[in-house]
Specification:
Keywords: Calcium, Carbohydrate metabolism, Glycosidase, Hydrolase, Metal-binding. The chain has about 450 residues and is of the alpha/beta class. It has 2 domains: about 10-215 and about 295-330, Alpha-Beta Barrel (TIM Barrel); about 350-435, Golgi alpha-mannosidase II (Immunoglobulin-like), CATH 2.60.40.1180. Helix content is about 20%, strand content about 20%. The strands form 4 sheets. A 7-stranded parallel beta sheet has the order 1-2-5-6-7-8-9. A 4-stranded antiparallel beta sheet has the order 10-11-12-17, with helices on one face. Strands 13-16-15-14 form a 4-stranded antiparallel beta sheet, with no helix packed on it. The longest helix has 16 residues, at about 135-150. The radius of gyration is 23 Å and the shape is globular. It binds ligand LAG and calcium ion (CA). Ligand LAG binds near residues 32, 162 and 258. Ligand LAG binds near residues 33 and 129.
Length: about 450
């Protein structure tokens, strides 16, 4: 039940044809090595299945954003030549199914050495992946055709991968060719992965905000660590003063598929219930557009999602649906957040106003007069009476209750009276009240 609980969109893994690496145990990162832009017969299913998913989500009011790999094709370390998941032949710098040939790749055929030099970062190879010459009209056209194919199926946005490695002018030329999204109108929503590794502004997040939103990894690095360590009292100050770009240009998250592996201490696997609190607080604080992680247990960083058939080398349709969210393999973190995204939607741009604090690990704040939320990173419950700007009324606790198809919330409620509310915040948990989720009378 994503839509009723406030989720506007879901980001999905790169859907294009990819390398198949049985010798490496079919790692999750096969998807980040494109062989062609066919979306038929990948490890994640057929074109028809993809189109059906997009349509069903659209009908439920939930958009699909695709992780778009546009900087590169395959690497040399992994495999010599195909076939790819859809059967296309290829070799590094030769992808006849697109078609791309040797001339469609940059001249610098070695790894990036100096991460602060734009010419290197954008013209050489990221972890040995063949680097597309995105300055060429042919490459721009092929990438735009791929994205427009997805838009034609109803895909409403893109997380553009490895953007730091593509000149802004090349992205501008590609984005300018994109169609409007059928049904929604307007161009697709674009958010760009720009890791902030230093160097001039042109290869840092501010160098791309004129083209779309950017991922602000500082949020993960700083706020993620603060919440992990129980320092909730620093969070609002950090998002006010320590972030990379303006709030309306940023996408933020506690963890993503890369950070879970590079910094596993900030993940559900390591943090358990504290991670639920971290994502709830991310949805409540005022900086950026929040993104929630929902993931699976892994024993090694390369291990892919739960699947069948990988032993047989089957790349297609092999990933199993997360029917079991026990944590044996799928965690399904979003389910623990209940209707918390409705809080984000209800409060909009309203400013955060600190209302209560008890040591470093317990905070409560308003979002203008539209929401009140309290967080408790300790091992015992926190009962607090706090001032709040919420109008008098009885509110549903969306951090602990879901909203059903009938629009009703199934949590216990809290009464606001005369500018005051008393709530009990569970250990490593949250309470969240907002003006769009009043309890039914009684
Ligand atoms: C990204 N953002 O810029 C993705 O978020 C990240 O997950 C991607 O790396 C990366 N850029 C390229 O799209 C992932 C894995 C890498 C993997 C790469 C290509 O984190 O480990 O590299 O996808 O599949 C792998 C090997 C490398 C090897 C390379 C080429 O790990 O050692 O050089 O393949 O063969
Ligand atoms: Ca590049």
């Amino acid at each position: 039940m994503l839509g009723p609980n406030g989720y506007g969109a879901v980001q999905v893994s790169p859907p294009q044809e990819h390398v198949v690496l049985p010798g490496e145990g079919h790692p999750w990162w096969q998807d980040y090595q494109p062989v062609s832009y066919s979306i038929d017969n990948t490890r994640r299913g057929s074109r028809a299945e993809f189109a059906d998913m997009v349509a069903r989500c659209r009908d439920a009011g939930v958009r699909i954003y695709v992780d778009a790999v546009v900087n590169h094709m395959t690497g040399s370390g992994s495999v010599g030549s195909g076939p790819g998941s859809a059967g296309s032949t290829y070799a590094k710098y030769e992808y006849p199914a697109v078609p791309y040939g040797d001339g469609d790749f940059g001249d610098c055929r070695r790894d990036i050495a100096d991460g602060t030099d734009p010419a290197e970062v954008q013209g050489c190879e990221l972890v040995a992946l063949s680097d597309l010459d995105t300055g060429s009209a042919h490459v721009r056209g092929a990438v735009a055709d791929y994205l427009n194919d997805l838009i034609g199926l109803g895909v409403a946005g893109f997380r553009v991968d490895a953007v730091k490695h593509v000149p802004a002018a090349d992205l501008a030329a590609i984005y300018a060719r994109l169609d409007e999204v059928p049904g929604y109108g307007g161009r697709p929503y674009i958010f760009q992965e720009v890791l902030d590794g230093g160097g001039p502004e042109s290869i840092r997040p501010p160098g791309y905000t004129h083209l779309g939103d950017v991922i602000d990894e500082r949020y993960h690095d700083q706020v993620g660590a603060q919440i992990r360590d129980g320092r909730l009292d620093s969070v609002l100050e950090t998002v006010r003063t320590g972030m990379a770009v303006e709030s309306d240009q940023a996408v933020v998250f506690v963890d993503n598929h890369d950070s879970q592996r590079s910094d596993p201490s900030i993940s559900y696997q390591a943090m358990g219930q504290r991670h639920v609190l971290a994502q709830a607080l991310t949805l409540a604080q005022p900086y950026g557009t929040p993104k929630v992680m929902s993931s699976y247990r892994f024993e090694s960083t390369a291990q892919g999602p739960p699947s069948t058939g990988t032993e047989a080398g089957n790349p297609a349709g092999a990933i199993t649906a997360p029917t079991d969210c026990s944590g044996e393999r799928w965690f399904c973190e979003h389910r623990d957040l209940n209707a918390m995204p409705t809080f984000t939607n209800a409060v909009g741009e309203a400013p955060a106003v600190e209302r209560a604090e008890d040591g470093a690990a317990r905070i409560a704040f308003d979002r203008g007069e539209r929401g009140f939320a309290a967080f408790n990173a300790s091992g015992s419950g926190w009962t607090v009476t706090s001032a709040t700007g919420l109008p008098d009324g009885r509110y549903c606790d969306v951090a602990n209750g879901t909203i059903g198809a009938d629009g009703a919330c199934d949590s216990a409620g809290y009464a606001v009276s005369g500018g005051e509310v008393t709530v009990t915040v569970p250990p490593n948990g949250a309470v969240a009240l907002h003006v769009d989720a009043l309890c039914a009378e009684g």
